[in-house]
Each structure stands twice: as C-alpha cells, then as structure tokens.
Amino acid sequence: MAAAADLVVPTLAIRSSVAVELWSSAGSKQPFEHKPHLPREETKSSRSICFSSDGRYFAYSNGQEVKVLQASRDSAASWPVVCLLPRPKAFYLQFSPRGSYLCTWEHYAITKDRPEGSPNLLVYEVATGVEVFAIVQKNQADWQPSWSADESIFALVVGGEALFYDLGEGAEKGFATTSRKIDAVAEYAVAGSR
C-alpha cells in the first residue's frame, strides 16, 4: 500500500532565460518533465514566478502582464487563467496567506510626466483581477507586506513608517485608510503572519 506522500505529485515551476514552464512527475520516484497539458510560455522577459501557499494558484510575469493560473488537482487537466494583471514591469510577486490577493512590486521610477513617481507596489484581488491598493514603495530589499493568517491585517513599512490596514470589513473599506501608523520603524512583525 502506498504512503500518503507517494500519492502527492508535486509541480515545479521553472523560470529560465527563454520560458516559464511547469513540470510534473508521474510519481515520487519518476523524473520531472514538462507535460503538454501544463502551461509553458516562451518569454525572455519573465522576472518572477510564485505559487500561493496552498498551491491553488500560480502567478508569473512575462514582460507584458502578470498571469494568475488556477492549479488543477487532476494531473491531466489544463490550468485555466484566473486573471491577467496589467503589470509589464512586475519584478516581484507575493500571494496573501489564503491566496485572496496578489501583491506586485516593480522598480520605482520617475518620469517627465510623473516627477513624483507612480505607485509601484500594487495589490490585486485574485478572483476578479481588480486593483485594491497601490502605494509608492522605493525599498526593494524589504518590499514585501505582511498579512495576518486570516488576511484581516495588512502591514508594510514605507519610508521608515509602519502602516497597518484593517481588512476585517473587506478590501475596499480596509485599504481606504490606515488603521495605525508608527513612525521611525526599521522592522516589524505581525503575529500569525506569513
């Protein structure tokens, strides 16, 4: 009788200089390889790939947009596109703990048209692809926001200020204003965060 671990067939995401592709195995002792039903996109401009923590979603940038795919539990089924996000320069991606939101970060830039710069950290609702939050986050090293495990708290440090958002009543209301700001912060942690 096979152990439970032997029945799980993991999927690997590969980002190379020529493509983003998913590989799977026919079993725990079998080699990984690209299967025809799994997504593969030839692109030399991909900067980031990311699975949600539960493996339900896979997101990647391709130099034109960010694609979010729904993983299939059926080893022979295709992975449908859940949403397309208009972020051609997305450099980093991060899902919220439950996979409800996807954060994208791109290099901060000022232009002649926008000398103050544009928001470069954006949060999207995965189910709809709707942008629910945007802010300027110049710091590349610690760009990632933190979430509580239930996604009711969203927090990040911007310019030495910790910003906390209460999403208990939904993203639209929760992201409208900070519930708390703390100045002169170098680092923070949210209990139960991922």
Automatic annotation (TrEMBL):
GO CC, alphabetical: cytosolic small ribosomal subunit
Domain of life the protein comes from: Eukaryota
Any one GO molecular function term: translation initiation factor activity
UniProt record, GO biological process: sperm individualization
Keywords: Initiation factor, Protein biosynthesis, Repeat, WD repeat
Protein name as it appears in the record: GD15004
